[in-house]
Amino acid sequence: MVRILLTIIISAVVGGALGAIQYSAATGGYQETFEGTQVSTAEQVGEFDSVEPTDGIPEVEVVGGASYDFGSMMHGETRSRDFVVRNVGTAPLVLEKAGSTCKCTVGEMDKNMLTPNEETIVTMTWTAESIVPMYGQSATFKTNDPKMAELKFSVEGQITSSFVIEPSSLAVGDLSVTDPAEKTFYVFSYLENSKELKEFSWTKPETRHLIDFQTEPIPVSETPYERHKTALKAHKVTVKFAPGLPLGPLNGLVQFRTDREDKVGMLELPVTGRVTSDLALFGGGSFNSEMNLLSIGNVKSSEGATLSIMLAVQGESRDAIEPRIESWEPQEALKVTLGEPKLVGSRKLYQIQIEVPKGAPEVFFPGSGTGTYGKIVIKTNHETMQEMPIYVRLVVVK
Fold first, then answer.
1. What is the pLDDT of residues 187-216, one digit of tens each?
2. Given pLDDT bands bounded at 50, 70 and 90, which one contains residue 174?
C-alpha cells in the first residue's frame, strides 16, 4: 500500500516537471505586448527613445491651424511655413513622418517626442514650379493621440506667371500686301535678375523672312498697363511686317525665350489678322471674298432685290486711287452703282449697290460651270490692281 502511494506521488512530480518543460518549449521567445506600448517605426530607426507607458493621454494641438495659404507666388519662387505642434495632453506625444506629396519638402523636427506642454516645429517648403495656376500640397504624420491618429499639414496658393505678355494675343487687323506695318506688345518680368528677351521667331516657315522683331527695355511706368506696376522689368517688343505677305488670313505664333530658362521655357503670343491688297472687297454672307463671288440667288421679277458690298481702299496711294464701275452682266437684269467714299480709320470705304429691279427679265446665271456666271467689273488707276472682277450667281424668274 505504501509502495503504491509512493509511486503515485513520484508520477505526479515527474508529470508536473514534464509539463513545465513542454510549456517552456511552446512559449519560448514570446513576449506579450500591449497596444499602448508597441514600438513605432520611428523608435526602430532611433528617431526618439521609447515612451514609457503612463496613465495619462497625449493630445496634439497645431497652433494656428494645420493649413496655410501662401497666396500668390511667382513661378520659381520658394516659400516655407512653420507649423507649431504642441502637446496639450497629460502623457508624452509621439510624432512620426508618414509621407508627403512629392513636390513638398518637410524639414526635420527638433523634437519627435513631446512631454505635456512641450512644442515643436514642422516646416513645409514649396517651390512654385507647377504649370497649373492653383496648387495644394500636404504632409502626414502619425501620432499616438487616440483622438488624432494622423495629423495632416497642408499648404496651398496660386502661382502667377513670372513673365506676362500684354496683350495676351495680338490682333493686327488688316495689313496691306504692299505696305510695311508695325505692331507692338509688352512683356513684364516678375523675376529678379531677368534682363533679356531673346531668340524671337515666327512659327510659319513660309513667311518667316517677312516678319522681324525689335525689343527694348523700358520703365514699367511708361507702359499702358497700370495693373503691372509692381513688375520688376518691362520690355516693349515691335513686330515688323514687310510687304509681300500672302493675301488672306494671317495666323501664327510669336515665340521667344528669356534669360531665365531655368525657371521659364518658351513663351508664345498668338497673332491674328488679315493681309489685304490696297483694294479689297468684302460683304455679308452672300459675298465670298476669297473667290470674289456674289450669290444673289433666285429672285422673282415681280419683287426684285437689293444688296450691297464694300470696296476698301488703303495704303500710301489711298487718296490717289479712283475706282469706277466699268461694266456688268447681265446688264438687262442688274443695276450697279458706286457710292461716295467714307473715311473709316486708315481706309476709304465705297459702297457698291447691286439691284435687281422690279420687272427685270428672266435670266439664268446659276454659276454651275464656266460661262454661267454674271460679272461686274471695277476699274481703278492703281499701279498693280487696275481691274477687279466680281462674279455673280443670279436667276430671275417670273
1. 998 877 778 899 999 999 999 999 999 999
2. confident
Whether the pLDDT of residue 131 is over 70: the answer is: no
| Distances from the Cα of 174 to the Cα of 99, 320, 346, angstroms | 58, 20, 10
Burial class (CB in 10 A: 0-12, 13-18, 19+), 271: buried
393: pLDDT strictly greater than 80:
yes
In terms of residues, how long is the chain?
398
Query: Which is more confidently placed, 389 or 195?
Result: 389
pLDDT digits (tens, 9 = 90+) for 34-92: 233 333 434 433 444 444 555 789 999 999 999 988 876 766 678 888 999 999 999 99
pTM (two decimals): 0.46
* Residue range 296-316: mean pLDDT, rounded: 93
Rounded Cα–Cα distance for residues 392 and 380 (Å): 20
For residue 133, the model assigns a pLDDT of 58
* Phi, psi for residue 210 in degrees, rounded to 5: -100, 0
Annotate the chain with three-state secondary structure. Answer: CHHHHHHHHHHHHHHHHHHHHHHHHHHCCCCCCCHHHCCCHHHHCCCCCCCCCCCCCCCEEEECCCEEEEEEEECCCEEEEEEEEEECCCCCEEEEEEEECCCEEECCCCCCEECCCCEEEEEEEEECCCCCCEEEEEEEEEEEECCEEEEEEEEEEEEECCEEEECCCEEEEEEECCCCEEEEEEEEECCCCCCCEEEEEECCHHHHHHEEEEEEEECHHHCCCHHHCCCCEEEEEEEEECCCCCCEEEEEEEEEEECCCCCCCCEEEEEEEEEECCEEEECCCCEECCCCEEEEEEEECCCCEEEEEEEEECCCCHHHCCCEEEEEECCCCCEEEECCCEEECCEEEEEEEEEECCCCCCEEECCCCCCCCEEEEEECCCCCCCEEEEEEEEEEEC
CA distances from 291 to 36, 283, 309, 383 (A): 86, 12, 14, 22
Chain centroid, CA 36 distance in Å: 51
pLDDT digits (tens, 9 = 90+) for 87-128: 999 999 999 888 766 566 777 677 889 999 999 998 888 777
